[in-house]
């Protein structure tokens, strides 16, 4: 890398060096022009001096060199010893044409420098924009990566909260059931399974009033939910009421029930908290139990009679 930089410096002279070279070259051309007859116009070589000055890459340098060369072209006329013997008008005309050529060359060179400067400026601006855009994309990528990481953390935290909430609900001492606006069961905790003898799979999707409430209480429950959704009447909600629920085996469970509305995606869900107070038997269950008791008593009496008969026979 150091050798490459040294080579570039050697191949690219400094502006001061180029200026000195241009001035020396102009002096050399002047000396050459002074050695030949004035009418031969050797001053055309000044164009080379102007071209050399373009390497300075500034608009001022060609103008200064053009003025210098023009002055030398005119000055050569007055150094001619035999000026009175030649056609002065022809000499002046030729010299003016040389000056015109010098300035045309300088003007074209200046335009070239302007174009190069404009192109360099556009390249610099483009490079600056590319760098800014690259930095902006890098910041955007960093922000996006951070947002993804934050979202993953938030989602994990949300899942953890849901898991903890689910564990709390499942281990609650009350039966906790959530339903939608149509009274369809959406969640069913472990205490609900224990209290009503129905598994979560069997309960999900069923209508709570038809599954748990006696027929006389179903209408009141459904009307209370519908009134809240339609008009906001919450007289049925947020209060503990005594009711009777029905387990899967047909037994009636005396319980306290509370229905709480929960806003959800522009509507409401409802959490139903049921605390069982005790279990009572229906008439059918009592009749079945009575029949079972009578049958057991009759069987016991028959067995006792048989035993007595065997004992009497043994005595005889």
Protein described:
- With 316 residues, the chain is an alpha+beta fold.
- Helices cover 66% and strands 13% of the residues.
- The protein is built from ten helices and five strands.
- The protein has a five-stranded antiparallel β-sheet with strand order 2-1-5-4-3.
- The termini are far apart.
The gist of it:
The chain is an alpha+beta fold and 316 residues long. The chain has ten helices and five strands, in the order αααααββααααβββα. The protein has two domains: 134 residues, no CATH class; 110 residues, Beta-Lactamase, CATH 3.30.450.
Question: How do the helices and strands line up, and which of them pair or pack?
Answer:
Blueprint lengths: L1 H10 L3 H21 L10 H8 L6 H19 L9 H83 L4 E5 L5 E4 L1 H7 L3 H4 L4 H5 L2 H17 L9 E6 L5 E13 L2 E14 L2 H33 L1
Antiparallel strand pairs: 1-2, 1-5, 3-4, 4-5
Helix pairs in contact: 2-3, 2-4, 3-4, 3-5, 4-5
Search tags:
316 residues, Beta-Lactamase, 66% helix, 2 domains, single chain, 13% strand, 5 strands, five-stranded antiparallel beta sheet
